[in-house]
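hi! just following up on the protien thing from before. the input was this:
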Amino acid sequence: MLEVGLTGGIASGKSTVAAMFVTLGAHLVDTDLLARQAVEPGGQGLAEIVAAFGPGVLGPDGGLDRRRLREMIFSDPQARARLDAIVHPRVGELLARELAHWRAADPEGVVLVDVPLLFEAGWAGRFAAVVLVYVPRAVQIERLMKRDGVTREQAEAALAAQMDIEQKRGLAQFVVDNSGAITDTHSQVRAVWAGLCALAGAASSR
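and the predicted 3d structure came back as:
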């Protein structure tokens, strides 16, 4: 099985591109979903977050108030590191289970692991290849302002918290430019999929 990292910048349309790959036959593992599972109510992960950040991170339903937590860690690198130390190991365990499942279910297939901050987390080396969903920074800002109803300054601050998209572009093995027409994106996805299938075939024949 070929294990491929899928990443992108804010407002790049990564979820749309991921769905296109799934339609072509890829298996998808969403680490955002795994992160939510890692901090479900009643679990040790959530208990450790409350111990580290206080009961104010809980919503009325007893679950994690993600917006409140993001506000707490946004401009505090030490707080972000504390959160990562709690969540990342649990996500890693859940990811290992998912990958083991797909290795058994489809040994010659391709699994895409959606990791929003793949390069920032130092995860690129975990995968046979990385696919980046790319749009220029100016497009990111405009889309983010429209999507989230934020100001230009807020959008720029959000982008500043991530690695620059052009730097990511230089690190990825495959790039899907999602700044144009959806038909163009489809065409690029099909081309990348052909490349991934070729890699998977080469790997299975060894």
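The radius of gyration is 18 Å.
The mean pLDDT is 93.
cheers
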